[in-house]
Each structure stands twice: as structure tokens, then as C-alpha cells.
Amino acid sequence: MTPILTASNIQRSYGTLPVLRGIDLTIHSGEIVSIVGASGAGKSTLLHILGTLDRPDAGDVVLANQNVFALNDNQLARFRNEKIGFVFQFNNLLPEFTALENVCLPGFIAGKPEREVRERAQALLQTLGLPDRGGHFPSQMSGGEQQRTAVARALINQPAVVFADEPSGNLDSHNAEELHKLFFNLRDNFGQTFIIVTHNEALADLADRKIVIRDGQVNPPEVE
Ligand SMILES: Nc1ncnc2c1ncn2[C@@H]1O[C@H](COP(=O)(O)OP(=O)(O)OP(=O)(O)O)[C@@H](O)[C@H]1O
């Protein structure tokens, strides 16, 4: 099976503080992988590097057959828009746009035809249980609905991988559980790959694989 993502010897320091000290990992298409570890272990730092939001001091990431850090910043921004979806703890929806418009934005940025993007956005909202919320502004939706809208936005360009950083960290337990079920439905029905940083033990344990970051390394190391 060809990996969808391979990270080799990822290193990152902040000043003199070494945070990532040679991370190696492989993710396969259709997997849901959780990344766990103590507070400050470097999980978010790693997720940002795997998601191309930050560059490592050393090491490579190959995502969807592209050596991502060989790209310049403009090429990388385009690659990120087309191949990667993000879901953060705070949904980062734009308050002045409706749910449908928020979901459409990455599609418009990719230069896709407006009608095609709107139809896909509406279909995604339907799939995610929000068929009649497209015209609502974020302030008119519950936290769970906002987060599902953020998931729809992450999926609009059919990304190779969705990265999620504490996606249910701001939700009550019922909405958290619903969001976790949604990730697994999206994987089962569409083969969507997810890499999820979480302190939520239920979610971490549900994942196909749990990668533990300790002392800046994957511990225990992955065995192919
Ligand atoms: N921009 C930055 N400048 C300096 N130090 C940073 C920066 N970002 C993170 N750090 C430090 O790097 C270490 C790893 O941070 P990171 O946010 O990746 O950890 P984490 O495992 O995601 O933690 P948590 O579970 O608490 O969210 C921490 O010691 C943090 O203080």
C-alpha cells in the first residue's frame, strides 16, 4: 500500500529548545491516526509541519507524492489549499460569511467554478447533518454545528489528508462524540484520511493507530 504521507527525521527547535528530535512516521490512505503525548511534547508543532503550515529545521515530508518542502512558499500555499484540510479547536469560521460561504471559500481560492463549489458545499452540509444551516452565520449556530461546518470547509477540495488539532476540545461530551463519529463515517464512506492531535482519550483510542510523542520522538518507534 502506498503511503499518503511519509515524514523522515523531522527536527524543529524553538531557539535553543529542541522540540522535535527526529520524527519518522508513515500514514496510509484511509487511516485515522491520533497523535498523543504530554502537554508541551510537540504535538501541535508536528501537526503544523506535517500540514505544511511550518517548515522543519531538518527532515522531509512527502504528502500525496509531493516532497512538500521542496516547494517555494507560493507553490506550497497552492498545494495546501488543494491537498490539505484543517480543523482546529476553535473553528475559525469567518463571522461575516454564512455557513455555505465559509465552506465554499477554499474552493473559490482554488479557482474552481462557482456553481460546482456551491453544489458541493451544499452536498457536504447535507452529509454533515446541516442541510438547512447554509444561510446561517456562525453566530447563529451551536458550537457543534459550527465545528461540523468547519469540517465541511476542510473537505471542500477533496483533500488527501485532513489534519485536526484538538477538534473536539471546545465541545461538550455529546457534541464531541458526534464529531468523532463523523470522522469515522467520512473515513468509512469516502476513504478520508485523518491525522488528529487530541487529549481526548476516547478519540485517541478509537483511532486505527495512536502515535505517542515523547522526548521529541515517536515512542515507541513505528515498525513497518
Ligand atoms: N512559537 C513558539 N516559540 C517558542 N516556543 C514554542 C513555540 N511554539 C511552541 N513552543 C514550545 O514548544 C514546545 C512544544 O509545543 P507544542 O504546542 O507543539 O506542544 P503540544 O504537545 O501540542 O502541547 P499541548 O498538548 O499543551 O497543546 C512547548 O514547550 C512550547 O512551549
UniProtKB/TrEMBL annotation:
<dbReference type="InterPro" id="IPR015854">
    <property type="entry name" value="ABC_transpr_LolD-like"/>
</dbReference>
<dbReference type="GO" id="GO:0016887">
    <property type="term" value="F:ATP hydrolysis activity"/>
</dbReference>
<dbReference type="GO" id="GO:0022857">
    <property type="term" value="F:transmembrane transporter activity"/>
</dbReference>
<dbReference type="GO" id="GO:0098796">
    <property type="term" value="C:membrane protein complex"/>
</dbReference>
<dbReference type="GO" id="GO:0005524">
    <property type="term" value="F:ATP binding"/>
</dbReference>
<keyword id="KW-0067">ATP-binding</keyword>
<keyword id="KW-0813">Transport</keyword>
<dbReference type="InterPro" id="IPR027417">
    <property type="entry name" value="P-loop_NTPase"/>
</dbReference>
<dbReference type="InterPro" id="IPR003593">
    <property type="entry name" value="AAA+_ATPase"/>
</dbReference>
<dbReference type="GO" id="GO:0005886">
    <property type="term" value="C:plasma membrane"/>
</dbReference>
<keyword id="KW-0547">Nucleotide-binding</keyword>
<dbReference type="InterPro" id="IPR017911">
    <property type="entry name" value="MacB-like_ATP-bd"/>
</dbReference>
<feature type="domain" description="ABC transporter">
    <location>
        <begin position="5"/>
        <end position="223"/>
    </location>
</feature>
<comment type="similarity">
    <text>Belongs to the ABC transporter superfamily. Macrolide exporter (TC 3.A.1.122) family.</text>
</comment>
<dbReference type="Pfam" id="PF00005">
    <property type="entry name" value="ABC_tran"/>
</dbReference>
<protein>
    <submittedName>
        <fullName>ATP-binding cassette domain-containing protein</fullName>
    </submittedName>
</protein>
<dbReference type="InterPro" id="IPR003439">
    <property type="entry name" value="ABC_transporter-like_ATP-bd"/>
</dbReference>
